[in-house]
Amino acid sequence: MDQPVTKRITVSTLQSAYQKGEKIAALTCYDATFALILENAGIHVLLVGDSLGNVIQGQSSTLPVTLNEMIYHVRCVGRGTRSVFILADMPFGTFQVSPQETFRNAARLMSAGAQMVKIEGGRHMAETIEFLTCRGIPVCAHIGLTPQSVHQFGGYKIQGKTTNAARQLREDALLLQEAGAAMLVMELIPAALGEEITRSLAIPTIGIGAGAVCSGQVLVLHDMLGISSGTLPRFVRNFMMGTDSIQSAVRNYVEAVKTGEFPAHEHMF
Ligand code: KIV
Fold first, then answer.
1. Which pLDDT score is estimated for 80?
2. Is 51 in the pocket of ligand 1 (CB under 6 A)?
3. Are the beta carbons of 215 and 205 closer than 8 angstroms?
């Protein structure tokens, strides 16, 4: 997917890249300076993720992140870029109550510069996703380990390991696609399940700890630069190793995603 720098990547660009079998390289981003570096390095999608709660705010989970904080960071990223696609997380508590309230909250992210919103959760989010997509807001669904449900999961654990849990995730993916989701993030699931879901859908899947057979990959920027505190999760590769600039680390990431060299066997479950 080679884009002239002045033409913004859209949901149609992503869909046609997917149809051509070209991999989508995504990273999280929260500010204008990094946004420009990442855009110049060839990233296709910037996810203004609620992981900013962890890596920017120093919180122990994403739960305290507010809609106003997300809007602020979406604006920062938007100002820093001209061509990259901007995806924004709907933070905890802003999409669970009703489709109508979700629409109002999502509309604020879209007005701030997001081109698509991401919503965590399985089949129970289908009605809301349909409501949004019928009203002009593209949605990326997010299944597997959904970090906003960390307290329900009892930690950041691999999902979809049992036959029943895997079946539920496969069904969720199809129901969310049917509801109108334009993209699907799959987090921390066995690689074989990630592959099965990817092959069953007609929309791009973006994996994070979901194996190599996804339509694209996403990582938390601070993790892949090796500047997050604590131990890196197994599915992360530190792309700063062996290079001397952020720009070339990100270029190497884009290339590794495009060629399928990342994720490698050691990054999968
Ligand atoms: O907020 C985030 O960084 C995310 C990724 C983990 C996909 O949602």
1. 85
2. yes
3. yes
